[in-house]
Design brief:
Layout (H helix, E strand, L loop, with lengths): L1 E2 L11 H17 L1 H5 L7 H17 L1 H24 L8 E3 L3 E5 L7 H29 L2 H17 L7 H9 L2 H15 L6 H18 L14 H26 L5 H5 L4
Helix pairs in contact: 1-6, 1-9, 3-4, 4-5, 4-6, 5-6, 5-7, 5-10, 6-10, 7-8, 7-10, 8-9
């Protein structure tokens, strides 16, 4: 994800489980951006951090999958960067941290909730295109590696679209209506109750999301005047784009899983 350096507008089992940790960590990075601010980030930092992250992941997943994970994460972050440049919002170089994810920290706040939502949407949008590219290449070459990477890409971008707190989905939902953040918290709680998520980082994300959503619903959020005053047309556009992208990711993941083999199937030679 990307971080605008605020909580609110006015305030400064296998690969699957590992990917869940990675996904949750990407959001936590948005909450610990002040650590990154203390670093002397240079233009080489993205490359250096990508290589370091690839090395770390290679010990668990092997080089091909590790490099693919990092590449798909980079595509996601590039989506945020493109949107930030479009709105002329200055930002620091992207940085990746193994098993935590990646983040782009802006130097200025977006002017309003519409810009914030578009920048947030840019990551999953381009990231989903990257996952689709892996799926298309997998279908053309019958590569189980590419099918697995496509699944990772679909999952990570879908996870980031959960309408919770500072996650990409949370920023989009916040631009539409404050109650959507509360619904996202309920959905996250449902995932935990159903046993779909067993990660303490996600619990932290959910807790901070509940806090920020509650403050805004109760009118305690310290907001920039007019920040959420965007047109109905803009709300409809971002809502339609959000629903469309979530639907596309679900369909893409479903189709990809028809040909993707589980690690156990691959070990037993089921082709």
């Amino acid at each position: 994800p990307y971080s605008s350096g605020r909580r609110g507008p006015g305030q400064g089992r296998d690969v699957g489980r590992m990917a869940s940790l990675f996904a949750a960590g990407t959001v936590l990075m948005g909450k610990t951006k002040w650590i990154l601010a203390g670093l002397k980030l240079t233009k080489m930092m993205p490359l250096v951090s990508m290589v370091g992250t690839s090395v770390a992941y290679s010990f668990f997943f092997g080089w091909p999958y590790a490099v693919g994970m990092v590449g798909l994460t980079f595509v996601h972050e590039t989506g945020h960067a493109v949107a930030l440049r479009y709105y002329n919002i200055p930002f620091n170089p992207m940085v990746m941290v193994p098993f935590m994810g990646a983040v782009i920290v802006t130097k200025e706040l977006p002017r309003n909730a519409w810009q914030d939502a578009v920048v947030a949407y840019g990551g999953p949008a381009l990231g989903s295109a990257g996952a689709l590219g892996c799926a298309a290449a997998a279908a053309a070459t019958d590569s189980q590696l590419l099918y697995a990477l496509a699944d990772f890409g679909y999952m990570i971008n879908l996870f980031n679209l959960l309408p919770i707190g500072s996650m990409d989905g949370g920023r989009i939902a916040g631009a539409v209506h404050p109650s959507l953040g509360a619904l996202g918290v309920l959905a996250g709680g449902g995932l935990i109750y159903a046993g779909a998520v067993h990660n303490p980082i996600f619990y932290l994300i959910l807790g901070t999301g509940a806090y920020s959503s509650g403050r805004r619903l109760l009118g305690y959020e310290d907001e920039v005047p007019g920040y959420y005053s965007i047109s109905t047309g803009q709300k409809v556009k971002i809502s339609a784009a959000y629903v469309g992208l979530v639907a596309a990711l679900l369909v893409g993941m479903s189709q990809n899983n028809k040909k993707r083999k589980t690690p156990r199937q691959l070990e037993r030679g089921y082709y």
